[in-house]
Structures are given as C-alpha cells and as structure tokens.
Write a structure and sequence with these properties.
The chain is of the alpha/beta class. Helices cover 44% and strands 13% of the residues. The chain has an 8-stranded parallel β-sheet with strand order 1-13-2-12-6-3-5-4, sandwiched between helices. Strands 16-17-15-18-19-14-20 form a 7-stranded parallel β-sheet, sandwiched between helices.
C-alpha cells in the first residue's frame, strides 16, 4: 500500500468493540478492575463507569495482544484508565511498558502527579512496587562534559555578556552561572527540574544534541545524566516518554527507548502531526554555510567546497516561488543540491577519526555536516508517492513598519516531509507490538475511520484493532449550549467588524468568564483591543505574560476574559465559573498555502477520496472538538460554546464538524444565547 492510498480511508482490519458487555467479563479485566476500585476508594474518589469500561478494554487489549483505540471524553479519568492496567500488566512483563504523551508538560504531569498518587493508593499491593522512569531526548539533559569546558562555544554564542558600563554580566551570563550551580546539585540534569527556568540560548550552553554527543568516547560517560536516565528506563517497569522520542525510536533506527512490546499513547489525536513534525527536514544555504565554517574552525579539512556548494544552492533558489514543488526539484536546484551532497560526503570522509577520538569540536562539526548530507540525499530522492518537498521564505521585521511579508528575494529554505506517516507508523510502531491509543477526540460522529487511517490502521494489510468510545460523565445537552452564528458574514482575511461586535455582545452578556480561541495572534490582539475599548472587563491576552500566569489569573478572576491562539485550544483546564463562555472566531482549517496539507489533499483526490474532507475538514473538526472541550471540565460546569464562523451553519461540511463536538444543545438564535449568558452571569455573581 502506498502512503497516499493510506489517506483514502479504506476500511480493513477494524473491529468495533461490542456494547452491553459487563466490563468484568472481558478477558484479563477482573483483577485490573479490582485494582482500580481499590485505588479509587483509597484516594477518596468516585466510581466512574467510563473509566472502568476503559480499564477493562485496555486490560483485554494487553491480554489478547490487540491494538486498541479508546475515545475517553473529558471527565472520564483516562490517565487511571490506562495506568492501572499498565501497573498490573507490568508485574508479569519482562520488558518495560512505554507510555507516550504529546508534550513534555504532560509527561511531567504523569510522572510527578498521577503516578505517585496512584502508587500511594495501591500501597500494600504488589503493584505499589512498580518502578517508573521518565525519559526525554538527550538535549533535555545537561551535558557534564560541556559544562566542564569539553566542548567549544557554539558559533555566535558567548557565555557572558558583559555590560561595559557596570562591569557586570548580562542576563545570559547570570543564567549560565545559575545553571552551573544547579548542575552541581541536581541528581537528574533534567531541564524541567530547574526552577525558575532559563532561556533556550542559555540551555544550549550546557546541553548537546544526540548527534553532537561523544557517546561511549566521552570521558564523563559514566556520570552522564542522559545515559543514567536511559539506564534507569531500561530497568524500570513503565517508561514515560513523548511522541517525538517515540517517533525517533520507531523511524530512525536509533534505540533511544528500551526494548518493549507494549506502547500506550495518550493524546493520540496529536500523534500523526507530532510524528510528521519529528521527521520533517529543512535545509538552507545558511545552514550549509554554518556547517562549512564549523569544519574550518574545528578540523583541518577543507571547507571551501561545501561553502561554495551552499552559495550555489542559494543562487539556484533565487526566484523559486515559496510553494510546493509538485513536479520535484527544478533542474538547477537539483544540480546544486547534488553538489551539496557530494561536498558534504567528502567533508565527512576528510574528518574521520579513530574510535578513541574525544575531540568534541570535531564531533560538533561532523554532526552539522551529517545533517546536511542526510537532508540533501533525502531531498534528491523525493518521490511524490511518499514524500514532498517545498520552498519557504521568511519575512522580516522592520521598526516602524512591523512584519514585512516574504517575497522571492528573501532567503529560501528547502523543506521535505512524508506525504503520510501511516505506513511508517504501521511498520515502526505497530508491527510486533501491542499499542493502545487514547484521547478525548478520536472520532468524528461515531467513526474512528479518519484517525485509524492517519495512524496506519486502515487499508490492505492493516493489523486488527478495536475501537471503543467510553463516553463522558457530563450531561452535555443540559450543561452547555452550542451557538452557531449563522447570521454573520462569511469570514474573510482577519477578523471582521461584525465578529468583533458579536464578541462584545457575548462577553457583556456573560460579564466576562470568556475564553476566546482565535485563529491568529493578530485576531486575538484586535479582539482584545476592541473589547477593551467597548467594555470595562479585564481582558488577558496571550503574549502579554506567561501562559501559566495568564491561566492562573483567568481562573481566579471569574469575570476576566482570556484571548489567545492554538495553545489555548488544547492546553487550558479551568473548571468552574471562570470559564462559562468559549468563543471561536473561525473554523481552524489548515492555511490554504500550507504545502503539506495541499499535497495530502491532492493525494487523497488522486486515489478517489474527498481531499478537502479527509484533510482540511478532519483537521478542523478535531481542533474544534478540543477547543469546545475547554468549556465543560466538571459535572457542575455550565456555559456556551460560540462559533463565530457562519460557514459551520451554512456549508455542507458544517454538520460533519458539529458531529465531532460534544453533544451540546444547539441553536442559531443570538437572543437565546444572550439570555442564557445573562442568567448564568447573574447566578455566578450572586454566588
């Protein structure tokens, strides 16, 4: 099966979980449910039917070696729904269970909050002795050899910025000093344990990438934080990691994770995009020039051929539009890229060293050249059936003029990405393992088809899998209203005056308590400015403070509003009266000029499918489901989700998107929504 065919939603190999069965009757479920009930009772929690159903099906999947997709709505308690079966299964497994989350933040939440509470709640039982480790990419750990001066400074970086007027070090220098003191006291070297954190620029001074690492040749390998973390992981029963590291382990042939046979993936709706991001490559003339200078600085090899090849590529890209290259590389670009490949290969040959070489500068230079070589080879071998390549250009910022859009004269970057990751996931992740995938948003309507297709579980030769939706404890039709603003004009570029006026109407009726989810930073800022001019409400805007601080203020002030972009669509958990109105300015389709989305849409159409529905509408539906999920976070929450994009009510694809949202009571009548918000605001402020 080709990559593009996997996007066409062919059904094969899936099994819908039977309904009406008692969870206890499923194979392997009984002891897991007893453990779950004990943990819930011990911690003073309440029995959740959806959580028990989920735990039973996860237990069955592990018992029968069958892949499982679980949609577990908000409030289900899905972390326990998969962690308890994992704890039980780990007692008899001779290999670690891998649990992968979408982000480092979720990873830390499981390790620092969910797991300790769970182990404490099953104290006295064998599962309480389960060993759990966290594992991240190498550059998330401090490198002792670099801290002790074993690596030369990166190009353009200085450890200490000196203020000539005061003689004191600048902010970077202060961060470096604090980092060095921290490294002397930390047991893990994990960046996330450093409080307060430091800038990326400062962290680069004490960390290395996997390619820059000397590995076993490092004189401090015995005390290396990253190696110690890997050793702990290999000896643990459960290893908590993230989607990106899972992708590297599955696709690049690098054993960054311990050998395993069971994988549990949380926030699985993110997996295909996270994997795509992890295996997308970018090559620019500037990057090639940097690699050449590194060769010159850290080795005795000739750097001129690589430098010249980079300049030739820059000239070849001159005038090439920033867009998808549907017919592959233009001849002059391909010729220049061949020169890059050949000169990078020669540079690597000229900088070879023996197995005992501990020259970190040489390793840094070779890492940069290796990346250039691998990307050049990959781009020259692009086949439209599997991968696509495109040109991008970055605009500029000028004082007094703001952001200047890019044109064909701006520096260019060549990008390459897989057309689909479905086939690679099937081979690198599912083959030979049991995989459980869970999220609050895996279906559109009642169908897992789109999610399964993106993950490699559809089409000829797909492995068998089961899909189960365990529902949510919330009564959505009674707790929430879905308002479709059908009377507003169809959105154009930016946010319209009519939308801004409707935002004011809604937030005034609700007296705040509004989370505004906008499609762009500019739209969020314009809406905030407009509402500030027309009301006296406290308007918080993403970017004006840290996200953590903004969410804290929003949750504590029940009459404030928080406006922001995509990270708010998925990352905000504010139960209670502080969030009683969620507004979305438009359906979050991929950008029309996004090359990868355009290529995937075309591929589906070429295979007889509906490219727009399979790519753009599905992407929008899942994002909107996540956004709408910000409203009801507990059984006592009430409120309105307002979609200020009339297309959801007037276009045929609107009903498809609505089916992905929680089943709120739905209306298009503005006066009904205004009245509901006013009554809700009165009750909140009365309390």
């Amino acid at each position: 099966m080709s990559e593009s065919e996997s996007l066409a939603n062919q059904r094969e190999g899936d099994v819908r979980a039977p309904t009406g069965l008692e969870p206890e009757t499923l194979p392997g479920a009984q002891p897991v449910l007893e453990l779950l009930d004990s943990a819930v009772a011990s911690s003073g929690g309440q029995n959740r039917p959806g959580q028990r159903t989920m735990a039973a099906h996860v237990a069955q999947a592990l018992e029968m070696d069958r892949h499982l997709l679980v949609q577990a709505g908000t409030g289900t308690g899905k972390s326990l729904g998969y962690l308890v079966p994992a704890l039980h299964y780990a007692q008899t497994s001779d290999k670690p269970i891998i649990v992968a989350t979408a982000t480092l933040a979720l990873q830390s939440q499981i390790v620092n909050r969910d797991i300790p509470r769970l182990l404490e709640s099953v104290e006295g039982q064998p599962e309480s002795e389960t060993e759990v480790a966290i594992l991240k990419g190498r550059n998330n750990y401090a490198c002792l050899h670099k801290v002790e001066g074993g690596y030369p400074e990166d190009e353009g970086e200085t450890l200490f910025d000196m203020d000539t007027s005061t003689g004191s070090t600048g902010k970077l220098g202060e961060e470096i000093l604090r980092l060095r003191k921290w490294v002397d006291t930390t047991d893990t070297g994990d960046r996330d344990e450093l409080m307060p954190g430091v800038s990326d620029r400062a962290w680069r001074q004490v960390s290395v990438s996997s390619a820059e690492c000397l590995g076993k040749r490092c004189p401090l390998v015995e005390s290396c934080f990253s190696e110690l973390a890997r050793a702990r992981a290999s000896e643990s029963d459960i290893v908590i990691t993230n989607h990106a590291l899972l992708a590297i382990n599955a696709f690049e042939g690098i054993g960054v994770l311990p050998e395993h046979e069971v994988v549990i993936i949380d926030e699985a709706h993110e997996l295909a995009d996270r994997v795509t991001g992890a295996v997308t490559g970018a090559l620019s003339p500037l990057m090639i020039s940097s690699a050449a200078r590194s060769i010159r600085k850290h080795t005795k090899a000739s750097h001129e051929p690589l430098e010249q090849a980079g300049r030739a590529l820059d000239q070849a890209l001159d005038g090439v539009p920033a867009e998808l290259l549907p017919k592959g590389l233009p001849p002059r670009v391909a010729s220049a890229l061949q020169a890059v490949r050949d000169s990078a290969r020669a540079a690597l040959s000229d900088t070879k060293s023996d197995s005992k070489d501990t020259d970190a500068g040489r390793q840094m230079a070779r890492a940069k050249v290796t990346e250039v070589l691998e990307l050049a080879e990959r781009m020259l071998g692009v086949n439209d059936e599997h991968e696509v390549v495109w040109v991008s250009r970055q605009g500029s910022w000028e004082p007094g003029r703001g952001y200047i859009a890019a044109d064909d004269s701006d520096p260019a970057t060549l990008n390459v990405a897989p057309l689909s990751v479905a086939g690679r996931l099937r081979e690198g992740l599912f083959d030979g393992r049991t995989v459980v995938l869970t999220s609050a948003t895996l279906t559109v309507g009642e169908s897992f088809d789109a999610a399964a297709g993106a993950l490699g579980l559809q089409g000829q030769g797909a492995p068998r899998w089961e899909g189960i939706d365990v529902g949510s404890p919330f009564d959505y039709p009674k707790q929430g209203v879905l308002y479709l603003a059908s009377d507003l004009p169809k959105p154009g570029r930016g946010i319209s005056e009519e939308q801004l006026q409707r935002v004011v109407e809604l937030v005034e009726a609700s007296r705040g308590g509004a989370l505004g989810l906008f499609s762009s930073k500019r739209a969020a800022e314009l809406a905030a400015e407009y509402v500030r001019e027309h009301t006296d409400l406290n308007i918080l805007v993403q970017g004006e403070s840290s996200l953590r601080a903004l969410v804290k203020e929003f949750s504590e002030d029940v009459n404030s509003c928080l406006f922001g972009t995509m990270s708010l669509w998925q990352g905000v958990d504010v139960p209670g009266d502080s969030c009683r109105l969620v507004m979305m300015d438009r359906i979050p389709f991929p950008r029309p000029d996004d090359p990868l989305s355009a290529a995937r849409t075309r591929a589906v159409a070429q295979n007889g499918g509906n490219g727009f529905m399979a790519v753009s509408a599905y992407h929008a539906a899942i994002r909107m489901a996540q956004g709408a999920g910000r409203l009801i976070r507990s059984v006592g929450d009430r409120g309105v989700v307002a979609v200020l994009d009339s297309r959801i009510a007037t276009q045929r694809y609107g009903s498809y998107i609505v089916r992905a949202l929680p089943p709120f009571w739905t209306t298009q009548r503005t006066e009904i929504v205004i009245g509901a918000l006013e009554r809700l605001a009165a009750s909140v402020n009365k309390e």
